[in-house]
Amino acid sequence: MTVRGSEQRARLAAFIQSPRLARTIGAVGIVTVVGLFGITFWALVVHLSGVDQRLFPGPLAVGTAMMDLLISERFWSNFLVTTQEAVTGLSVGCLAAILVGIVVANSRAVEIVFMPYAVALQSMPKMALAPLIVVWFGFGFSSKVILVATLVFFPMLVNVIAGLRSSPSEEVQMLRASGASRLQLLYFLQFPNALSFIFAALEACVVLGVIGAIIGEYVGAEGGIGYQMLQYYKQFRTAEFFALMIVLAALGFGQYLLVGAVRRRVVFWSR
Amino acid sequence: MNITARLALGSKLQYQLRSNSVYVLAGIVLFGTLAMWEASVRLLEIGSFVMPAPSDVVVSFIRIVKSGELFAAAKITLIEVLVGFGIAAVVGLTLGGLVGLIPFAERFLMPYVVAGQCIPTITIAPLTLLWFGFGVESKIATAAMAAWFPIFIGTLNGFRVQSPAEQEMLTSFYGSAWQIFRMLRIPRALPYIFTGLDVGFVFAILGAIVGEFIGGSAGLGVRILEASTFYDIPSMFAYLLTLSLIGLTGHGVINGIQRRLLFW
């Protein structure tokens, strides 16, 4: 056995015997127990109150609907559409926010000109722009991408600017004293420091991306999960609607976990 | 006027007006941008269904104010937002307080809280139509459902703050549990609670508007949708402006209350 192999075996043995494993099992156990309680409570409420299952479905109906969905091809193509909308919108919005943020953080003049708008636009519910965006960009893919990008842009911008400014001043001065150009300063110091802010904001923004894609589809679309949800709602197929909502939550949660994992690799020095 | 000249003018005004300089500068910038916008739309002859000029927007704004449409719609939306926000605040504060103060509740519920953040509550909007009909109630429900979570999280974070030294001091002075709660936990939690309320208000507006988009008969969201079917973009801008004003006012009110209550 190689040295590396025995090292890994030792680590595995330590993990199995460690209190960390017990804690992880404990945590999973608690989550499962609470989840089971929740589902039982839900089932009791629905069946005891005798409410029409088209108004408020019980867990059994939702579970069956979910299984039917997962094997239907139309669902998966819709899922792909919505995921693409969300991810593309997120990328566009974050990229724009990073670029604008770099400009604003480095130039006092641009900041003075630009920031009042940013602050004012923060208080506006940007989702209300959805009909406007659909009018301008049509029912297709691009309108959802633009809506998501708009939603994500402002929170991301604030975080990018805060992150770029967060580099300790001694380090800035040291780089400047060594004769670094603006670009070098940005690349070697400011941007790495900004990354932790950017990823934190990204974790919050992935959910916004999913919401934006869905609402965009509610307002006007030809495909996607939101479109399918609207159809189910019109057909009173509430169980399928609930199932799709759970899928959405899973999508958002999955993205959140993914971003978290990437964050821990890329910004390995924080936390 | 190039940037340098504008900055010079700004700093000169700053010297004269001292703390009001930022507002004046912002005003100058706003005016300049509006002028450039108007000029480019007119010169390039962009149709008003693509990008309206500020003058078109102002004309539409005056028209909808005069016809009373704006106030009627705004009143309905405002009711939806305020009632929804009120319900969300009560629910969010109570649940947040319960989970934050009961020692082990958080451990059991934390994964679901995190998962709950990911459920886009606004997407429930069509269901609220099913449950509450097409009237104001469903929009109130959507607004409340969208807004309660930030308030809940804010309250939770607020009560998570432990100041053991201060708590020990109060106990050593024979402070009762109620006194500890009133004099220590609540003030320490308030900043987080107000942040939650602030975010929750915007979400309440969002919920009301999305509810109106999906199925409503009156209100600002409905008007925006209506205007979009006529490609009447100046009116859409006018309604959106009103929405922003509502958002800004709410934000200002909450901030104002926060500054008075938390004067430190």
Write the layout of secondary structure elements.
The complex is a heterodimer of chains A (271) and B (264).
Chain A: H1 3-17, H2 19-49, H3 59-71, H4 73-106, H5 108-122, H6 130-137, H7 141-164, H8 169-177, H9 182-219, H10 225-234, H11 238-266
Helix pairs in contact in A: 3-11, 4-5, 4-7, 4-9, 4-10, 6-7, 7-9, 9-10, 9-11, 10-11
Chain B: H1 3-17, H2 21-44, H3 54-66, H4 69-101, H5 105-118, H6 125-132, H7 136-160, H8 164-172, H9 177-214, H10 220-229, H11 233-261
Helix pairs in contact in B: 1-2, 3-11, 4-7, 4-9, 4-10, 6-7, 6-9, 7-9, 8-9, 9-10, 9-11, 10-11
How does this model look, in words?
The complex is a heterodimer of chains A (271) and B (264). Chain A is mostly helical and 271 residues long. Chain A has two domains: 3-50; 60-266, MetI-like fold (Orthogonal Bundle), CATH 1.10.3720.10. In chain A, 83% of the residues lie in helices and 0% in strands. The radius of gyration of chain A is 24 Å and the shape is flat. Chain B has 264 residues and is an all-alpha fold. Chain B folds into two domains: 3-45; 64-261, MetI-like fold (Orthogonal Bundle). Chain B has helices at 3-17, 21-44, 54-66, 69-101, 105-118, 125-132, 136-160, 164-172, 177-214, 220-229, 233-261. In chain B, α1 (3-17) runs antiparallel to α2. The two termini of chain B are 42 Å apart. At the A-B interface, α2, α5, α6, α9 and α10 of A face α1, α2, α5, α6 and α9 of B.
Classify the oligomer: heterodimer
Helix-strand makeup class of chain A: mainly alpha
At CATH's second level, what is the architecture of the largest domain in chain B?
Answer: Orthogonal Bundle
**What is the terminal separation of chain A in angstroms?**
35 Å
Q: What proportion strand of chain A?
A: under 5%
Q: How many individual β-strands of chain A?
A: 0
* Average pLDDT level of chain A: 83
Helix and strand succession of chain B? HHHHHHHHHHH
CATH fold call of the largest domain in chain A: MetI-like fold
Total number of helices of chain B: 11
CATH superfamily of the largest domain in chain A: MetI-like
- Report the uncertain regions of chain B: 8-19
Tell me the domain tally of chain A.
Answer: 2
CATH class of the largest domain in chain B equals Mainly Alpha
